[in-house]
Records
---
Amino acid sequence: TPLNEKALGYYRQAFAVSQRLHDHLHMDMALTNVISVAHELMQTPSITGEMRAYRRSNHGGLLYNYNLILYDAVSREEQGRKDAAIECYDRQIAMLGDNKQYSRLVYFTFVNKARALETMGRYRDAIAAMQKPREIAEQQNQKDLQLEVYDLLSALYNKVGDTRQYTSNREKYYQLKDT
C-alpha cells in the first residue's frame, strides 16, 4: 500500500540517521521496522544495503541478534523456505524468553510464526502459536494488538471449520473495533 511505502521510507531515514549518530538502540528499533515493513511489502531484497551496514556495525546485543535472525526469517519466507523461516522464529522466541521488556517483540515473533504456518496450511499449529500473542494483547490491553489477534484467529478458526471459535473471535474483533 502507499502508506506502507511511505512508512518504509521514513524507517529507512531513521535508520540512516541513527547509524550516522552511532545510536545503536534507535538503529536497532528502526531496522526492526524496516525489515517488518519491507517484508509486508514483499520487498525484503530491497534492504540489503541497510543490512550490510547493520552487520558492519557489529554492536551485538539482544536486539542486534534479533534483527539478524528476523532478516533471515523473512528472507527465507519470501524464498518459499517456510520451515527454515519457522526455525528462525523459534530461535527468536527462545532468545527473547518471557522478558516483559520485549513483550512487543515476543508478540510480533509469534504472529510472524503463525502467519508462516498459515501459509503452509498448518492452521491448527498457527492457532496454537497465536495463544501467546492473545495473552500479551489481553494482558497489556492494547487495542491494536487485540484487533490483530482476533482478526487472525477468526480467519484461522474459519479455515479449520470451528464455527464457534470463528464467531467468538469475530464478535470480539467487531466489539473492540466499535469502541
---
Amino acid sequence: VYVIAGVCIWGVLSKLLVQGKLHRLLKASENMVATTQRQLRTIRNHYEKNLNMDLQVYNIQAFVDKYLLKLKLCGIPIRIWDSMTTEAAFLTVAVGGIGIINTIHKGYGEGVAFSILFAMIISCACLLSFENIFRIENSFDRLQANIEDYLENNLKNRLGRPLVSRQSRSQHQAAVTME
C-alpha cells in the first residue's frame, strides 16, 4: 500500500512540476522582448542570428517546434515528465497486482487484499484525473503560438526595419549629391 501511495505521489508531483514549468514559460513568452527564461532567449537569439546573417526561416512553426522539443526540466525532456503520470498509473496497477497475488499466496486474508485493491483503484483514479485535468497539449500550443507571433510579427519587423532605413538613407544621400 505504501509503494502504491509513493508511486501515486511521484506521478502527481511530476505533473505539477511540468505544469509549473509550462506556466512560467507561458508567462515569459507573453513578453519575449525582456524574457529571463533561458530557453526562450535561446530561441530568440537563434532567430535573430539567422535574420542578421540574411538566412531566411521559411517555416517558423518547424523552427519553434524544434526548440520546444528540446525543452528540459532537471535535464529530462518535458515530454517524458508529462508521460510519467500515465507510467505511474501502469506501475500502480502492476505493483497492486503483484501485492494482491503475494497476499493471496501467503494467506494474509481478504482484508489485506481488498485494502491493496482499494489503494490501487484510488491511486489510478487520482493519477488519471490529474492526467486529464493538467493536459499540456493546450499549454504547448499556446506557448508555440506566443513564440511564433513574436518572431513573425515583432522581431522580424524590428530587425528588418534598420536595413530598410539604412538603404533609404544611402539612396537619399545619393540623390542629394547628384543634384
